[in-house]
Automatic annotation (TrEMBL):
SUPFAM superfamilies from the UniProt entry: Double Clp-N motif (SSF81923)
Keywords in alphabetical order: Repeat
Keyword Transmembrane part of the UniProt annotation: no
Presence of the UniProt keyword Repeat in the record: yes
Protein name, per record: Peptidase
Chain ranges of the Clp R domain: 2-188
């Protein structure tokens, strides 16, 4: 599959792996943050057109807050509140007892030595598989950074929830990218 990746898609994977060094494994979050680092690509165009780049700090803060809550998104916290469960109160009590970030998700696979390469979480691997499906569905012979963005937005998961919250739902991303030809920047 990696032979089909464009230069920009490889940059996303390499950037995510670089970000994951301290975490121990590449996650969906790392893929999104690596996408946000790109300039002049189709995904960068889409993220800028949707206003995500302007709100990058807020988006990163939202991801940090979700991680702090043990992976529970804002929508999930609101649904639990409807059942009378106050996630903020639970997080506060756990952090009072065990310190800030005690619930932070750090789902990393068991560490195997792999010649300097970071392992990918199951969710990150699923994103890359969905990016192949997105490319095939669009009739593309390559997997570009735009396909990784489409795969992230297609969810399921926290990253898709945050993208939707910041105006980059799957439908929004598809609209901005068009059907393969509209709004093209370099595919690298």
């Amino acid at each position: 599959m990696l032979e089909r990746f464009t230069k920009s898609a490889r940059e996303v994977v390499e950037g995510a792996a670089g970000r994951a060094e301290r975490a121990g494994a590449v996650t969906e979050e790392h893929l999104l943050l690596a996408l946000l680092d790109l300039e002049g690509t189709r995904a960068a165009f889409a993220l800028a057109a949707l206003g995500v780049h302007r709100r990058r700090e807020a988006l990163e803060g939202a991801l940090d807050e979700i991680r702090r809550r043990g992976g529970i998104s804002r929508a999930e916290a609101e649904a639990l509140a409807g059942l009378g469960i106050d996630v903020a109160e639970i997080v506060a009590r756990v952090e009072d007892a065990h310190g800030r970030g005690a619930l932070a998700t750090g789902r990393t696979p068991r560490r195997r030595w792999s010649a300097g390469r970071q392992p990918f979480t199951r969710e990150a691997k699923a994103v890359l598989e969905r990016s192949l499906r997105a490319a095939l569905a669009r009739g593309d012979r390559h997997i570009g950074d735009e396909h990784i963005l489409l795969a992230l937005a297609a969810g399921p998961g926290v990253v898709a929830d945050v993208l939707t919250e910041y105006g980059a739902s799957q439908a929004d991303v598809e609209r901005v990218l068009g059907n393969g030809g509209e709004g093209r920047a370099r595919t690298g």
